[in-house]
Amino acid sequence: MSEEKKLTTAAGIPYYHNEDTQSAGPRGPLLLQDFILHEKMAHFNRERIPERVVHAKGSAAYGTLTVTHDISRYTKAKIFDTVGKKTRSLLRMSTVGGEKGSADTERDPRGFALKFYTEEGNWDLVGNNTPIFFIKDPKKFGDFIHTQKRDPYTNCKSPTMMWDFWSLNPESLHQVMFLMSDRGTPYGFRHMNGYGSHTYSLINDKNERIWVKFHFKTAQGIKNFTNDEAIRMKAQDPDFAQRDLLESIDRKEFPKWNLKIQLMTPEQAKNHPFNPFDLTKTWSQKEFPLIDVGVLELNENPKNYFAEVEQAAFAPAHVVPGIDYSPDKMLQGRILSYPDAHRHRLGVNYEQIPVNRCPYAVNNYERDGAMRVDGNGESNPNYFPNSFDSIKADESYRGIPLELDSQTGGWYDRNAQGENDHYTQPGIFYRQVLSDYDKKELVKNISFSLGLVSGPKKEDIVNRQLCHFFRADIGLGMAIAQTMGVNVEAAMKDVQHKEPVPAGA
Questions:
Q1: Which domains does the chain have, with CATH numbers?
Q2: Residue 279 CB neighbours (<10 A)
Q3: Is it true that the peptide bond before 385 is cis, omega within 30 degrees of 0?
Q4: Active-site residue, from 43, 45, 55, 380
Q5: Which residues in the chain come in under a pLDDT of 70?
Q6: Active-site residue among 18, 38, 122, 128?
Q7: Catalytic residue flag (residue 463)
């Protein structure tokens, strides 16, 4: 048996009466002086920190990234400097739109957020289980997420809000197709791929830059729920994905993902037929084949969910030497928004929380703020430069500037000429990626969801969205229209007369 421990307050003061409040007699009123009552209730009232605005429902586990192939000619990042090198990692997977208590089998993209504890700082790679997203400019992010949350009048989820937004933003079509296929209801977290989604850059020891996309391919094989199966599991076990991941690791059936990258040279990017930094587009794997890098294995469950999962904070801003940003507009927006969200939710010193703390040296001049628990720099100077400490800025980490092709300071139409092909890739996805069975499921799922649109604008929203499906693939549009019982000819005329085609359509 382990040694007995005394029950104490958070200040370390031993106490005995943990179940009975001090009162004026056995049936009398309680006494204000019973500090333990106040201590317990006050802490209980503050146990809930704000939940994440997005990705609130999630699961995480620790693991190891093992490098299996040499990519050091592309990057000087120390995580990749040696074949066989192992780096401790944390992976959190989540639904996007639901609250913390929602079901994790809902039709929704899944977040795929990784933290690598490297010797040159923590690298966060924050993506989804899809290589694309609904929008390509961060100014639209809040508006989009509002449509996935609750209607301000009914406080209920609203298919009308969702489809209205999507129908007015044809750039969303590619991701909508992914979402409405069975990929939108993965069988837990172990049987889905993960993607960095954004375009990043790798920088080698010669300060040469190359654009990169990160892919994590599940070694367990892709497995999805049908819509009906997902609905049943939602009622049977709303925590299915959480339980499945936790129990598989407890059984020592450690899930694995194969890390691969796609590379594009700056010259190829300049000559590419579409914007390679557009988050609504993928790179062709025929033109830019996948390159093997390593294996990620999850092999350790967190000991405490709140401490290590709820308080885990990931930010695409956190890149390490050898890995850098790109002109991807959504990535640029997330560089600001993610750390800001963590400061709001967890406090300005969120990176001192053990799950977020870099296990190697951290030297800077940040001081004070709520929950400063690392000694606050003690008596050392809190300004730079100074004449007293030995902290120096190492010139070898200077980095290289990002070359720009145009003047800065302008507002450019995200769907201007050359940026407005929202239909070619969704059409390819439908015709070449989905099996005949998957196509039928996609049509069924879209028809069901689009059929839930209600209100006086229902006809406009449905017809407008149908036009996008027709532009992607005539057969897809016809199949959805027929399943919904929509008069296609009337719908096309109706849209042309009632509303202009949305930007970029």
A1: 1-47 (4.10.91.20), 58-134+178-352 (2.40.180.10), 424-498 (no CATH)
A2: 24
A3: yes
A4: 55
A5: 1, 406-409, 491-505
A6: 128
A7: no
